[in-house]
Write a structure and sequence with these properties.
Layout: E1 18-19, E2 25-26, E3 32-36, H1 39-42, H2 55-60, H3 78-92, E4 96-100, H4 103-106, H5 116-131, E5 135-141, H6 147-151, H7 158-175, E6 181-186, H8 188-198, H9 208-232, E7 238-243, E8 248-250, H10 255-278, H11 283-288, H12 302-306, E9 313-316, E10 321-324, E11 353-355, H13 371-383, E12 389-394, H14 411-429, E13 434-440, E14 459-461, E15 468-470, H15 472-483
Parallel strand pairs: 3-4, 3-13, 4-5, 5-6, 6-7, 7-9, 8-10, 9-12, 12-13
Antiparallel strand pairs: 1-2, 10-11, 14-15
Helix pairs in contact: 3-5, 7-9, 8-9, 9-10, 13-14, 14-15
The structure holds beta-D-fucopyranose.
């Protein structure tokens, strides 16, 4: 059954998420208030201290792939400005920070020994966070596969999962004692299906079978990396994965449109939830894709390996996905929410149509609809009641413009986050065990194929000077983080 097919509220809540005396929703003490970023999107220093190119360095240099040929060479120079960036978070009152470790920085070319200069950056960063009272949450892989591993076949090849586990062990050993909260992969759906299916993300391949093989090796890599982390870290370490689960809606209540939801739920959500949380691929996914592959790349025991005990599950959510049984008259650009490519990111779903969800849209064209987040959290709590949840990404791009006095007022972003936090609170009141929320993103940054054209930060970054300026949403979010109370944005 699709994860988001219904949203009853029958399970009992272990989490006291209650109204404050002011009437505003109040989040429990200890709820993590964070912001999220990723290495390639913010670090820069692309050729410093031994780092070698990732698939994104190459993709950015492929004509026509990234807006105006933007690259992450300098990005927002976080590699050199991390102390200032930690101070920005501390001043807001954030209690957690989700960042990713750059594989080609700490294990150049994807093989061989770790480079201590690369690891030292993350040692310095996490020391700075801990000194500021901010909990570091490290993601091992946010899409920056070392280019040499792609040259050797990339995620469609099993060896990449094995290299990933070795890298996980090196990072785990280096940061043990500093980092307790870990995420193996960020949004493996994007790595597999945008990277190897539609080709709108690096490495830009358009081969549905390669995309399915990549999905499997990401599942396997997740399991092997989780095992490697458990071996390298103290028992107190907490492991997770961050999935961009699709909150699916049928265009109409017809049986055919509901069947389209089932098909996309299989190849969009359960392709990862199945192995990682249930220990098996769903039979309907194998049936739907039987015309493409017999899945013989799945070896006996792989699904069990993917099914490691997780201490929490990371949920990334931006907008719902509306589907219909026929693709006639629909825009290919709606297929992946990332502008659409020459090919579909959805294997064995050629007939399915993708539609703009109703409601106001952000600068990405993504409809604002917090009920999708509620449905995902409530659906996961129902299906996996034993696993705590953390919203590891949620946020919005808008066309923020500094005023003549330098201030940046972004009421839409605060309204977006307010609506989604209200949905999180409602899910908690209805029984979902949600432990934290990470706003995407701390800083305006390199938004993949959109380059620096789309701004997601609560801190504005000047494209020329790289100066950071808090937007009005940062002030509002800081107040929510400090009080644990969901004040309406206009009160900030
Ligand atoms: C997510 C990615 C993140 C950023 C946001 C807008 O899919 O994980 O890096 O691009 O979307």
């Amino acid at each position: 059954m699709p994860l988001t097919s219904s949203a009853d509220s029958s399970s009992a809540s272990p989490v006291p998420a209650v109204p404050a005396p002011s009437g505003n929703p109040r989040f429990p003490t200890g709820f993590l208030w964070g912001a999220a970023t990723s290495a390639y999107q913010i670090e820069g220093a692309a050729a410093e201290d031994g780092r070698t190119p990732s698939i994104w360095d190459g993709f950015c240099r492929t004509p026509g792939k990234v807006f105006e040929g933007h690259t992450g060479d300098v990005a927002v120079d976080h590699y050199h400005r991390f102390r200032e960036d930690v101070r920005l978070m501390a001043d807001l009152g954030l209690t957690a920070y989700r960042f990713s470790v750059s594989w080609p920085r700490v294990r150049p070319t994807g093989r061989g020994p770790a480079v201590q200069r690369g690891l030292d950056f993350y040692r310095r960063l996490t020391d700075e966070l801990l000194a500021a009272g901010i909990t570091p949450v490290a993601t091992l892989y946010h899409w920056d596969l070392p280019q040499e591993l792609e040259a050797a076949g990339g995620w469609p090849e099993r060896a990449t999962a094995e290299r990933f586990a070795e890298y996980a062990a090196l990072v785990g050993e280096a940061l043990a004692g500093r980092v307790e909260q870990w995420t193996t992969l960020n949004e493996p759906w994007c790595s597999a299906f945008l990277g190897y299916g539609s080709g709108v993300h690096a490495p830009g391949r358009t081969d549905p079978v390669a995309a399915l093989r990549a999905a499997h090796h990401l599942n396997l890599g997740h399991g092997l990396a989780a095992q490697a982390l458990r071996a390298a870290l103290p028992g107190s370490a907490r492991l997770s994965v961050s999935l961009n689960l699709h909150a699916l809606r049928p265009l109409t209540p017809s049986k055919a449109d509901r069947e389209a939801v089932r098909r996309i739920d299989a190849v969009g959500n359960r392709v990862f939830l199945g192995p990682m949380l249930d220990g098996a691929y769903p039979q309907d996914l194998l049936d739907d894709t039987a015309g493409l592959t017999d899945w013989s790349f799945v070896r006996p025991g792989d699904e069990r390996t993917a099914n490691q005990r997780l201490d929490w599950l990371g949920v990334n959510y931006y907008t719902p996905t509306v589907v219909s049984a026929t693709a006639e008259g629909t825009e290919p650009a709606r297929q992946d929410g990332h502008g659409g490519g020459a090919a579909s990111p959805w294997p064995a779903a050629d007939t399915v149509g993708f539609h703009q969800a109703p409601g106001r849209a952000t600068a990405m064209g993504w409809a604002v609809d917090p009920s999708g987040l509620y449905e995902l959290l409530a659906g996961l709590a129902r299906r996996y009641p034993e696993i705590p949840l953390i919203v590891t990404e949620n946020g919005a791009a808008y066309e923020d413009k500094p005023a003549p006095d330098g201030t940046v007022d972004d009421p839409e972003r605060a309204a977006y986050v307010h609506g989604h936090l209200a949905a999180v609170h409602r899910a908690m009141a209805d029984g979902a065990d949600v432990r934290g929320y990470f706003l995407w993103s701390l800083l305006d940054n390199f938004e993949w194929a959109y380059g620096y054209e789309k701004r997601f930060g609560v801190f504005h970054v000047d494209g020329r000077t790289l100066a950071r300026t808090p937007k009005s949403s940062a002030h509002w979010y800081g107040r929510v983080a400090r009080t644990g109370e969901l004040h309406p944005p206009r009160e900030a």
